[in-house]
Amino acid sequence: MSLLPHAANMAKPLFEDVAGDIDVSFEFFPPKTEKMEETLWESVKTLEPLAPRFVSVTYGAGGSTRARTHATVERIARETTMTAAAHLTCVEASRGEIDDIAREYWAAGVRHIVALRGDSPEQGKAYAPHVDGYRNAVDLIGGLKKIAPFEISVAAYPEGHPDSPNRAADLDNLWRKFDAGADRAITQFFFAPESFFRFRDTAAAMGIDAEIVPGILPVSNVAQTRKFAGACGASIPAWMDRLFEGLDNLPGARALVAATVAAELCGQLYAGGVRHFHFYTLNRAELAYAICHLLGLRPKEQQVEHRRTA
């Protein structure tokens, strides 16, 4: 019995048509210990040859976290070829304090801000703006634009922000961010490609024509991801729990499963026309690098050498 008729009906390989025609960006968080700093910089150096559009560094509410963010952003700008973007939130700071931080970034050569409302530093407590602070991301964007002509990225929520009463209100808030001067939106992570496509198409129907970049989180720890999801309105599919079941003590196998899941999502997004991806790295390079490789992206020097010999 021939298998050829059956094989002819099978879909072609997911990554068969990738051409490396993508742009990527990566997100890191400021390290708390010397060991974490070593891991971060190993990851930075691993991902740098992929020539990302920018790399961003997250920002917490506490003063020490703010200082670490600033130091990490400045070091990336100073010691690498990558464009560094600094996260900035409205949490527990006055307008004056945030304006001073923004001016310091501009003076240090940082031209890109990821402007966010932020969440309460106390888990389970509702967000409340500082009495003398910016109320939300829209307000923050307006303040930043008065200080300097920053490039500004903002957050978007394919499955809706937990604080939004409905999807329409959430999309209206995104529209107001762009109206205030944002250049692009980066989505919170999701695991179903249709969530992104539906969100993107609805935004376009509203008249939002700015860039919306999917945020990709390669998952290797479902419990940790569930905590992240609770803060940003993302849903964790039941099949993900099943995929990682029994792998707690097998980190290598867990990483392979994580790469497979994230790569399939990216392949489906690519097939749907997406060419810009933002990776939440959690300060680890391997998974993001592997997925970029599957999508055809190669280190910059290899791209140059390929053109020379082609």
What attributes does this structure have?
47% helix, alpha/beta, 13% strand, TIM Barrel, disordered N terminus, 12 helices, 310 residues
Description of the molecule:
47% of the residues lie in helices and 13% in strands. The longest helix is centred in the C-terminal third of the chain and has 21 residues. The N terminus and C terminus are likely disordered. α10 packs parallel to α11. It has one domain: TIM Barrel. β3, α4 and β4 form a beta-alpha-beta unit.
List the helices and strands and how they pair.
Blueprint: H1 4-8, E1 23-28, H2 34-47, E2 54-57, H3 63-79, E3 84-89, H4 95-107, E4 112-116, H5 137-147, E5 151-156, H6 167-180, E6 184-187, H7 193-205, E7 211-213, E8 215-216, H8 222-232, H9 238-244, H10 251-271, E9 276-280, H11 286-294, H12 300-309
Parallel strand pairs: 1-2, 1-9, 2-3, 3-4, 4-5, 5-6, 6-7, 8-9
Q: In summary, what is this structure?
A:
With 310 residues, the chain is of the alpha/beta class. The chain has helices spanning 4-8, 34-47, 63-79, 95-107, 137-147, 167-180, 193-205, 222-232, 238-244, 251-271, 286-294, 300-309; strands spanning 23-28, 54-57, 84-89, 112-116, 151-156, 184-187, 211-213, 215-216, 276-280. The protein has a single domain (18-309), classed as TIM Barrel, CATH 3.20.20.220.
Mean pLDDT: 88
Query: Main sheet, how many strands, which sense, barrel?
Result: 9 strands, parallel
Specify the overall morphology: globular
- Tally of contiguous helical segments: 12
How many distinct beta strands?
9
Based on secondary structure, the structural category is alpha/beta
What number of structural domains do the residues give? 1
Poorly predicted regions: 1-9, 303-310
- Name of the CATH first level: Alpha Beta
Order of helices and strands: HEHEHEHEHEHEHEEHHHEHH
What's the end-to-end separation, in Å?
43 Å
Please name the CATH topology: TIM Barrel
* Radius of gyration using CA atoms only: 20 Å
Strand order of the largest sheet: 7-6-5-4-3-2-1-9-8
Estimated share of beta-strand residues: 5-15%
Q: Fraction of residues in helices?
A: 40-55%
CATH architectural grouping: Alpha-Beta Barrel
